[in-house]
Amino acid sequence: MSIVEFRNVTKTFGPVVVLREVDLNIDKGEVVVLIGPSGSGKSTLLRCINALEEINGGDLVVDNISVKAGRSQVRHIRQEAGMVFQQFNLFPQMTALDNVAFGPRRVRGVTRAEALEQAKALLAKVGLAERGHHYPSELSGGQQQRVAIARALAVKPKLMLFDEPTSALDPELRHEVLRVMQALAEEGMTMIVVTHEIAFARQVGTRLIFMEDGKISVDGNPAALLANPENPRLREFLQHVH
Amino acid sequence: MEFDWSIIGEAMPALFSGARLTILITIAGLVGGLLVGFLAGLMRAYGNAFLNAVAFAYVELIRGTPIVVQVMFIYFALPVLADIRVNPMTAAVTAIVVNAGAYIAEIVRGSFLSVHRGLKEAGLALGLPMWKVLVYIIGPVAFRRMIPPLGNQFIVSLKDTSLFIVIGVGELTRQGQEIMAANFRAVEIWSAVAILYLLMTGTLTLVLRVTEKRMRIL
C-alpha cells in the first residue's frame, strides 16, 4: 500500500523547472535512496512530500492526504512525515531533551513530564542518553544530527524524510548518524533519503532512484544497479561520487 | 563663578517630581510602544501585502517626521482636526507610544527575519501552525537578538521625553527650565538635570545588561 504517491508532479522556481511531471509510488516499509547530481531536483522532490515546497502541477498524496488539501491537512501530513535536515536545525535555545520533547508537547499536546520521559528514551536510542541537558551549541555535528533524528521520531511519524543528513558532517562523524538510520530502517520505518552515501544505499536501501534534470531516470534495486549500472549517466555519476 | 550646592538642594524636590514624571511617561510610552512595535513589526515581516503596506506607511510616516512635530500635532492639531482634546500628559505618552512603536517595529522585523530559516522549516516540518513556530521557536531566538537595539531605543525614548517641554508637561527638563528662569543658576541646575538623566539611563543600561547576561544570545 503506497504511502507517498507523486502523480505527474511539476515544480518550478520562477522560470526554472525543477521537477518535470514526476510519477512515483513509495510503499510502506521501503527505504528509498535518492541520488543524482546537484540541481537534479532530489531535495526539492523530498521537500514537496511534506509541503515545504508547494507543487505547481499534478498531485501528491501522502498518507492518503493531498498536499493541496489545505493548511490543516498539510499539518497532518507533516506530523506523519518527520524530516531531518542537512543543517540539523535544532532549536538553539533548548537543550537536547527539550528539542526532542518539543514536538510531542506542542504538536501532540502531551504533558511536559510525559514528553520528557519519551525524549529520554529516544535520546538513549540514538546513543545520547548522557547528553540530554546539553544545548545544541555544546554538541558535535554528529550528535546534533542524532538529536534531530530523535526530535523527528518523537512525533511518531509513519515516514521519515532525510535531506542529505550527513553532508554537513566530517567523515568520521558520518558513520554514527548512518548507524542510527540503519537501525531505524531495520525496525521497518519507511524512509526516503537524499544522500551521496553510496555504501548506505547498497547496504540499507531497498530501492535506488537516480534523478537528473528534474526527472527520475533510473529506479530499481540498489545492489543490482550499483553492481551493474546500465544507464551511462548513472555510471558516470557513480564514478564521481566514489 | 562659584558652584553653589545649596541651589541644587533647594531645587531637588521639584527636579525629583520632574524625574518621576519623566519615568512615568517613559514606562507608559514604552509599554505601549512595545505592543505597537511588535504588532507592526510582525505585520511587516509576516503579514500579507495589505498588512505589510499599512505597517510600512506607519513606520515611514513616524520615522520621517521629528518627534516634536508629532507631539505638537497630537496636542494642537488633533483637537482642531478631529475634536479630540487631550491633556499634555496623554499627548506625551501617546507621542512616545507612536514614535517608539515605529522604531521598535523595525527592530522586531529585523530580529525575526535574522533567525535562520531552517528553524522555521524545522518547526513547520513537525506539523506546527505558523503562529506556534513564531511564538515557541523564532520568537525566543529573535527576542535575545532584540535586547541590544531595544536598549538603545529605550534610552532614546527616555531622553525624547525632554522634548515635551514644548507642550508644557512638567517633566525633568521642564522643571529645570522653570527653576532656572527664576534663579538664573544655569550651571547648577543643568548639571543637576544632566546627572538625573544619567542616573535614569544608567539604571536602564544596568537592567539591560543583567537581562542580556542571564540569556544566552543565540
From TrEMBL, chain A:
Q: Which SMART domains match?
A: AAA
Pfam families reported in the protein's UniProt record: ABC_tran
Family assignment? Belongs to the ABC transporter superfamily.
Q: Where is the ABC transporter domain?
A: 4-238
Q: Which UniProt keywords apply?
A: ATP-binding, Nucleotide-binding, Transport
InterPro entries attached to this UniProt entry = AAA+_ATPase, ABC_ATPase_HisP-typ, ABC_transporter-like_ATP-bd, ABC_transporter-like_CS, MetN_ABC_transporter-like, P-loop_NTPase
Q: What is this protein called?
A: Glutamine ABC transporter ATP-binding protein GlnQ
Q: Which residues form a coiled coil?
A: none
Gene3D superfamilies, A to Z: P-loop containing nucleotide triphosphate hydrolases (3.40.50.300)
From TrEMBL, chain B:
UniProt entry keywords in alphabetical sequence: Amino-acid transport, Cell membrane, Membrane, Transmembrane, Transmembrane helix, Transport
What GO molecular function annotations does the UniProt record carry, in alphabetical order? transmembrane transporter activity
* UniProt key word Ribosomal protein: no
What coarse category fits the chief subcellular location reported for this protein?
Answer: membrane
* GO cellular component terms listed in the entry, alphabetical order: ATP-binding cassette (ABC) transporter complex
Q: Which GO terms describe its biological process?
A: amino acid transport
Listed Gene3D superfamilies: MetI-like
UniProt xrefs under SUPFAM superfamilies: MetI-like
TM regions (residue ranges): 21-43, 55-78, 90-112, 124-143, 189-208
Membrane as a keyword of this entry, yes or no, is: yes
Describe the location of the ABC transmembrane type-1 domain by residue ranges: 19-208
Where does the source fall among the domains of life? Bacteria
InterPro entries attached here? AA_ABC_transptr_permease_3TM (IPR010065), ArtM/GltK/GlnP/TcyL/YhdX-like (IPR043429), MetI-like (IPR000515), MetI-like_sf (IPR035906)
Subcellular location field: Cell inner membrane; Cell membrane
Coiled coil: which residue ranges? none
According to the UniProt entry, where is the signal peptide? none
Report how it sits in the membrane.
Answer: Multi-pass membrane protein
Q: What does this protein do?
A: Part of the binding-protein-dependent transport system for glutamine; probably responsible for the translocation of the substrate across the membrane.
Matching entries from NCBIfam families are given as: HEQRo_perm_3TM, PRK09494.1
Protein name (database record): Glutamine ABC transporter permease GlnP
**Record organism:** Shinella kummerowiae
